[in-house]
From TrEMBL:
GO CC terms: cytosol
Gene Ontology biological-process annotations: carbohydrate catabolic process
Native source organism of the sequence: Paenibacillus kribbensis
Entry similarity comment: Belongs to the glycosyl hydrolase 1 family.
Alphabetized UniProt keyword annotations: Glycosidase, Hydrolase
Catalytic residues (positions): 384 (nucleophile)
Protein known as: Amygdalase
Database matches in PROSITE patterns: GLYCOSYL_HYDROL_F1_1 (PS00572), GLYCOSYL_HYDROL_F1_2 (PS00653)
C-alpha cells in the first residue's frame, strides 16, 4: 500500500497566474495586432445589464473599429506588464514563486492570426520574460490561447467557427514551441475552454449574431479547438523533449439544491456538461451523454476523417483548472439566485459570498480535486483560485487584506486534505498575484493580487506597485511548503 501523504510534495509548484490580455497592455506596440480582448469596453456597474458585458455584436464590432464608440478599453492598457515585467517578476521572486502562469498574446506573434511570418519583436518580448524568470529560478507555465483570439481570425473566419483556424493555431503553437523549447516545459492549450458555451466571443472570437443556430456554432467551434489542442499536444511532445502539456477547465462543481431526485439528476447533468471538456482532452473521445445532448438539441458536428484518431492519440499529460466557487442547482423555479463566474445558480445557505456575489466554498475544492482524480487518474494543477475584492489603501499605503488571506488559507488547507486523500496535485497558482483588469467586467476595483497596482476603473493612477499584507503571508506559505497557513 502507498503511504498517505501528510503535506505538500517537496517539488510542489507554488506561484501565481495571469493572462496577457489582462496584464500586458501595449496593445499597439512593436507590431502587435488587435485581439478579441481589445474590443471589450469598460461599462460602469450602474450601466451594466449584467455583470458579464463581454459579448459583442457585428454592428458593435464595426462601430468600435470605425472609432464610433466613445469608451475605454482597459484590456488594451492592462497594468503595463510589458514595460514593468522586470519589476513584477522581481516581486514574484521575492515571494518565492516556483512557477509563474502567463499566456502568450497570439496577436503579438501573428498580428492577424493567419500571417505567413511571425513578428520578431513579439517573439523577443517573451524571450526576455522567460530569461527574467529563469534568472530567479521560476518555471514558466504558458497558456497558448487565453481569451486572446487575433481579431483578423474573427474577421476572416468568424473565429474558431472556421476550420481553417486549426492550422493557423497549430502553426502558432509550432512557432512558439520551437522558439522556447529550451525555456518552457509546462504548456496549456486553451484557457477555460468551456467558456465558449457561455461567451463565444471571449472563448473563440465568434460573433454569435452572424450564425443562425447558436448551439450548433458553439459546439462546432469547440470541436475545432479540441482538434487543434490535440494537434498542438502532438507537436509539443515532438518538438520539446519532456514537455508537459495540459488542458484547462473552468471547473464549477454543481450541488443539488435538495435531496429531491429531480435536483440530484439536474446536478449530475450540470456536472457532466462541465466535465465533458476534460473528457475529450483526457480520454480522447466524446462522452456518450454528449451524443444524446447533441441529438436532442439538433446539433450535428461537421468532422473530417482522422479527427477521432487525432483526439484519441494525443491526450493531455495533466489536467489544470480554475476554481472559485461551487453552484447549487434546482430542477424547479424555487430558491434565491446567486451570482457566479459567467454562470449563476441557486443560493447555497451554508456558504458566504464575495463582494461580487460569488459563493465561497473551500471544501468544494477538495470535492473537485477528488472528482477529477477519481475520473481521470492524471496529475492535477490548480492554475486559478483567488478572491476578487475591494481593497482599501490606508494613509500609509498599506492594504490589510485579511479577507484574502482567510480565503486562500481555507482553500490551501483543503488542497492538503485532498493530497492526503491520494490526489496527485502538482501545483497551485493563485489568480492575479498582481492586480490586473477583470476579465468579465474590465474593472480594476475587483482586485485579486498580493501586489497592489495604483490604477482605478477609469484608468487613473501611477501604476506604482506596492505589497499588501497577503504578500508576506503567501511568501511564508511558499517558504514552509504549505505547512504554515
Amino acid at each position: 500500500m502507498t503511504k498517505m501523504l501528510k503535506g505538500f510534495p517537496k517539488n510542489f509548484l507554488w506561484g501565481g497566474a495571469t493572462a496577457a490580455n489582462q496584464l500586458e497592455g501595449a496593445f499597439d506596440v512593436d507590431g502587435k495586432g488587435l485581439s478579441s480582448a481589445d474590443m471589450i469596453a469598460y461599462v460602469p456597474k450602474a450601466e451594466r445589464k449584467n455583470d458579464h458585458a463581454i459579448e459583442i455584436s457585428s454592428e458593435r464590432l464595426e462601430d468600435i473599429l470605425a472609432g464610433k464608440v466613445n469608451a475605454r478599453f482597459p484590456k488594451r492598457e492592462g497594468v503595463d506588464f510589458y514595460h514593468h515585467y522586470k519589476e513584477d517578476i522581481a516581486l514574484f521572486a521575492e515571494m518565492g514563486f516556483k512557477v509563474f502562469r502567463m499566456s502568450i498574446h497570439w496577436s503579438r506573434i501573428f498580428p492577424n492570426g493567419y500571417d505567413a511570418e511571425p513578428n520578431e519583436a513579439g517573439l523577443q518580448f517573451y524571450d526576455n520574460v522567460f530569461d527574467e524568470l529563469r534568472k530567479y529560478g521560476i518555471e514558466p507555465l504558458v497558456t497558448l490561447s487565453h481569451y486572446e483570439t487575433p481579431l483578423g481570425l474573427t474577421q476572416k473566419y468568424n473565429g474558431w467557427l472556421g476550420r481553417e483556424v486549426i492550422q493557423h493555431y497549430v502553426n502558432y503553437a509550432e512557432t512558439v514551441f520551437t522558439r522556447y523549447k529550451d525555456k518552457v516545459k509546462y504548456w496549456l492549450t486553451f484557457n477555460e475552454i468551456n467558456v465558449m458555451t457561455m461567451s463565444p466571443f471571449t472563448g473563440g472570437g465568434v460573433v454569435i449574431d452572424r450564425v443562425e443556430n447558436k448551439q450548433q456554432a458553439i459546439y462546432q467551434a469547440l470541436h475545432h479547438q479540441f482538434v487543434a489542442s490535440a494537434l498542438a499536444t502532438k507537436r509539443g511532445h515532438e518538438i520539446i523533449p519532456g514537455a508537459q502539456i495540459g488542458c484547462m477547465l473552468a471547473r464549477i462543481e454543481s450541488y443539488p439544491h435538495t435531496c429531491n431526485p429531480e435536483d440530484i439528476l439536474k446536478a449530475q447533468h450540470e456536472n457532466q456538461m462541465n466535465l465533458f471538456f476534460t473528457d475529450v482532452h483526457a480520454r480522447g473521445e466524446y462522452s456518450n451523454y454528449m451524443n444524446r445532448y447533441f441529438e436532442e438539441n439538433n446539433i450535428v458536428l461537421q468532422t473530417e476523417p482522422g479527427d477521432a484518431e487525432i483526439l484519441k492519440n494525443n491526450t493531455v499529460d495533466f489536467i489544470s483548472f480554475s476554481y472559485y466557487m461551487t453552484l447549487t442547482v434546482s430542477a424547479g423555479p424555487e430558491g434565491e439566485k446567486a451570482a457566479g463566474n459567467l454562470i449563476g445558480g441557486v443560493k447555497n445557505p451554508y456558504l458566504q459570498s464575495s463582494d461580487w456575489g460569488w459563493q465561497i466554498d473551500p471544501i468544494g475544492l477538495r470535492v473537485t480535486l477528488n472528482t477529477f482524480y477519481d475520473r481521470y487518474q492524471k496529475p492535477l494543477f490548480i492554475v486559478e483560485n483567488g478572491l476578487g475584492a475591494y481593497d482599501k489603501v490606508e494613509e500609509d499605503g498599506s492594504v490589510h487584506d485579511t479577507y484574502r488571506i482567510d480565503y486562500l488559507r481555507q482553500h490551501i488547507a483543503q488542497m492538503k486534505e485532498a493530497i492526503a486523500d491520494g490526489v496527485d496535485l502538482i501545483g497551485y497558482t493563485s489568480w492575479g498575484p498582481i492586480d490586473l483588469v477583470s476579465m468579465s467586467t474590465s474593472e480594476m476595483s475587483k482586485r485579486y493580487g498580493f501586489i497592489y497596482v495604483d490604477l482605478d476603473d477609469d484608468g487613473n493612477g501611477t501604476l506604482k506597485r506596492s505589497k499588501k499584507d497577503s504578500f508576506n503571508w503567501y511568501k511564508n506559505v511558499i517558504a514552509t511548503n504549505g505547512e504554515e497557513l
